[in-house]
Write a structure and sequence with these properties.
Blueprint lengths: L2 H11 L3 E2 L5 E7 L3 E2 L11 E2 L2 E8 L4 E6 L3 E8 L2 E6 L5 E6 L11 E4 L4 E6 L5 E8 L8 E3 L2 H7 L4 H7 L3
Antiparallel strand pairs: 1-2, 2-5, 3-4, 5-12, 6-11, 6-13, 7-10, 7-12, 8-9, 8-11
Pfam families: Cupin_5
Protein name: DUF985 domain-containing protein
């Protein structure tokens, strides 16, 4: 099976839909329980207790820099490796590789991105596609997601200008 056939099969069998940023996604789980926070000033109400999605990125596509309000756990499922870049509030850049650790000991099946940390994801150069899961606890909600703006991130983290220019859409 070619990579394009694998992608088509995964999109159909996992019922993935196009994502506005590129690639495909599908929510696989969302709990019916809600949680309320003891820090109400940061949150505008209760959230679902947890959620999980599949995300498929093809070569040349990426998840642009954004800032999650909660930790996100990425789980590699299929395809090639992907780089996950994180920039913390002090400007420290970290690169983790999500992929099959049996093929390369530097790859990880699971990568956690901490809350309030900017991150972006892109398939590595040799990768035709990558399928991963993303678990968010409490569950993902649009109001908890902040899209990175290129100008703002360049001002805050000028030392990472090349990466920010490449992995920010606006």
């Amino acid at each position: 099976m070619s990579a394009d056939e694998e992608i088509d099969h995964l999109v159909r069998s996992l019922e993935l839909i196009p994502h506005p940023e590129g690639g495909y996604f599908g929510e696989q789980y969302r709990t019916d329980r809600q949680v309320t926070f003891i820090q109400p000033n940061k949150f505008d109400g209760p959230r679902d207790g947890g959620s999980c999605i599949y995300y498929l990125l093809k070569s040349g596509k990426y998840v642009s820099f954004h800032l999650p309000l909660f930790d996100e756990i990425f789980l590699w499922h299929a395809g090639g490796p992907a780089k996950i870049y994180t920039i913390d509030n002090e400007g420290k850049l970290t690169q983790s590789i999500l992929g099959d650790t049996l093929k390369n000991g530097d790859y990880r099946y699971q990568v956690t991105v901490r809350h309030d940390t900017w991150y972006a994801v892109e398939p590595m150069e040799q990768t035709q596609y990558v399928l991963f899961g993303a678990v968010v606890i409490p569950g993902w909600a649009l109001q908890d997601w902040t899209q990175g703006k290129r100008a703002d991130l360049l001002e805050k983290f000028p030392q990472h200008g090349e990466l920010i220019k490449r992995l920010c859409k606006e």
